[in-house]
Design goal:
single chain, about 90 residues, mainly beta, about 45% strand, elongated, DUF3892 domain-containing protein
Length: about 90
C-alpha cells in the first residue's frame, strides 16, 4: 500500500463577474492563463449600430467551491462612450 494522497483537481477556469457598465450583471467562464486571472478584459458590443469596445479592470476576487470568482469594474476612461456620435477611439498603444 502507498501513503500517496490523491491529487485534487485544480480548476483551469475562473468566473468573471461584471459589476457595472454595459455588461453589468453578466457572468462568464474564462480560462486561466498560466494559472492566473486576467487583470483587465476587453468586451465588444454594438450600441446604436456601432461597435464599441469596453475595458474592464479586476477589482477583487474570492474562491467559491474551489473556483476563483473575479469582479470586474468598467474602466470608463479607456472605454468607448455609450452615448453620442463621437468618433470611436478606443485603440490602446
Amino acid at each position: 500500500m502507498s501513503d500517496a494522497q490523491p491529487e485534487v483537481p485544480v480548476s483551469k477556469e475562473y468566473i468573471a463577474e461584471f459589476v457595472d457598465g454595459p455588461f453589468e450583471g453578466r457572468v462568464e467562464h474564462r480560462v486561466l492563463v498560466d494559472g492566473k486571472t486576467d487583470d483587465e478584459i476587453s468586451e465588444m458590443a454594438t450600441v446604436g449600430g456601432q461597435d464599441r469596445l469596453f475595458w474592464y479592470v479586476a477589482e477583487g476576487a474570492r474562491e467559491v467551491q474551489g473556483v476563483q470568482h473575479v469582479r470586474y469594474r468598467l474602466d470608463a476612461r479607456d472605454s468607448d462612450q455609450v452615448h453620442g456620435n463621437d468618433e470611436v477611439d478606443s485603440y490602446r498603444f
